[in-house]
Fold:
Amino acid sequence: MSDSVSSANSLFRSLLKYTATLGFIGYIPFAPGTWGSLAGLISFILIMPSLQTQLLIIIIGVITGIYASSVAEKALDEKDSRRIVIDELIGFYVSVFYLPQRPGYLIMAFLLFRFFDIIKPLPIKKLEKALHGGSGVMADDIMAGIYANIILQIWIKIS
Structure:
């Protein structure tokens, strides 16, 4: 019985690591974060989710991302590993939340999100360092998504 429980736990941890890395995407040797964000863009275009579905994806994604990233950090033996890219996918969804579902906005959201995720202006950098485990992994990308979204919401209001 103990072996089957241990085997189930190992399988569950592997599944969480797979979720955190978005399968093979986190293992792409160059710019895995950009590929994770691109996975968000592509999935958004394929689904074209309603506002309620976007919110549900973000909420479930944040909760799952925190837990999966915590497990993946231990499995990969690396704090905020480059291989963990679920945060980029969910951060992208935050960046397009409540925006018109038009190609120009989606592309600008992608570019702005990547910019803020890479540059990490204040308080993103502090947030990333203040939080640990999966919370820290997810928080900086959520904030980068919020920054991108705010800029695009302002653009919509002034244009």
Notes: The chain has a mean pLDDT of 95. The radius of gyration is 16 Å. The chain has one domain: 2-21+28-158.
